[in-house]
Amino acid sequence: MYDNISNGEWRVVTVMFAGENRKTAVWKVNPVSPDPTVIARAGQILQEGGLIAFPTETVYGLGANSFDANAVSSIYTAKGRPSRNPLIVHFVGEEMRKRLSPVWPPLAEKLAKAFWPGPLTLVLPKSPDVPDVVTGNGPTVAIREPVHPVARALILAATCPIAAPSANRSNELSPTLAGHVLRGLDGRIDVLLDGGPCAAGIESTVLDLSGERPRILRPGPLSREMLETIIGPVEISGGHLGEAHLPSPGMLLKHYSPRTPTVMVRSPEELGFDEGHLAVVTFGPIGNVPATVVVLPGDPAGYAAEIYARLHELDDGRFDRIVIVEPPDTPAWAAVRDRLKRATHRAD
User: At 10, phi and psi to the nearest 5?
Assistant: First the structure.
């Protein structure tokens, strides 16, 4: 772990997992104009093989030098993440991008001009420079150029692309605030850059360009319709759970889940209130019910921006169950519905 001492110099403290009386260092940064000194030190830690949690425009990421296989392996250890579940690599600029994939099809160029930097991840054939641990031993790599000033500054300071899944324990709720990161990873990572809340609130859209046709592997802030206005028809993945590796994160049936038992119902009429202390998450009024009711915005973007934060709050509320009223089954709600289905999946 990394910390500072009174004379302004830095010292290295060996990372030890939670329960061993160590804490992750938390450095507050301005989300618009982060302190160059702080960012430079964080970049140095990444160069040395450390782990840094940092804000992006989607959720907080847990970053390591993408070309350092040992550092990337420590992400999997800290998160308890399955080794076949690949990571997204974040980069800034064409030079870094070329080191990640030797292939740059015309569709990628069109999408990059329209949506990068931003919450779009592209899956392409991987470069030999990318360690297999980054890609879950698969032949492709998922890459994106973030727009968040802290993320961009950190990548440039590290002078390398950063492999970074969400900064949470595997399968648990993604973090949109620094406190959410500490909830699962305090003592397991070196430094957390606290840049305040993440705007989009859910993870990036993942589009696979490695096959014959562009295919959405994970819906996100950029909808299918938005992508199709740039490149034409886009397919939606039917799943890859039977394969030896996954081409993208966010494809496991159970993911983004509260620790509290959570279910989804089609309408408030399906709610049963004789089953203990309940919390209900909805996007419209449901009348007087014997439960704690959380009403989220009725538009998909507003709902997405708040859902993880509110579920984190409810998860800490000692409820017996969280009940989520299903949002509309329309294209605009596809990303939100995807996250909620994975959050409430039960292996019966």
Answer: -115, 150
